Amino acid sequence: MNTYTSRPVVLCLSGHDPSGGAGLQADIEALIAQGCHAAPAVTALTVQNTVDVLDFRVLDREWVLAQAHAVMADSPIAAIKLGMLGSLAMVDTVVEVILANPGIPVVCDPVLRAGGGSRLGKDEVGYAIRERVLPLATITTPNLPEARILAELPDGSAQACAQVLLAHCPHVLITGGHGDEQAIHNRLFSRNGSQDTRTCQRLPGSYHGSGCTLASALAGRLALGQSLASAVHTALDYTWRTLRDAEQLGKGQYVPRRLPLDFCH
Q1: Helix 210-223 to helix 23-34 angle, to the nearest 10 degrees?
Q2: What is the pLDDT of residues 177-211, one digit of tens each?
Q3: CB 116 within 8 A of CB 47
Q4: What is the three-class DSSP state of 84?
């Protein structure tokens, strides 16, 4: 039996989506595509499909810590990817996990709303993420509606929201696509004052799990040792391709195709 040590392990603390479009399945597939191994610790169970989230239940803090500690005791963790938290107790939980893994990249995807518009936690969860999680993260990847919630700027521009969030996190990637812009503008802001905008073609339709896909791909590239700016570009390019090849598996949003059709052949 061969023993492989080349694939970095990325610990994913995210919710489970039974439709397979978002959440931990998105994390797993996107990380496999980067050449990484996903270690998925479930933070929440959801009742959802490609149309919307109908309900969710955040797991007990002890169960999530037990999952994470079991992985951490067994495998070296190369990066951490955060998805749906959903409660103040889960914010406390991921803070504890991050502090137990000093010096590794942490990608925070602040999942505050589902693609269909439903909230995935109360307003104070967003505040707690901003105040307690973002200072421990390497980068956060909100879309503009999420950035406005985090920054408490209901009508704020990407630039205005980023200036608030940079006081908490050294790098902020605010993704486009939620307005009526003809092209998608993904804007990377860094605390050192640098800005980098990547523009891509707007694709028709809407997509289920695009944010999870991007954040996981980014965590994978950082786990592989890629520089942050280069990792952002690679992850954005990869995510756009998954949307270009997306499938309509249900009655709602398209699901990104994160793995090639011949992956298992």
Answers
A1: 40
A2: 766 677 888 999 999 999 998 888 888 888 999 99
A3: no
A4: coil
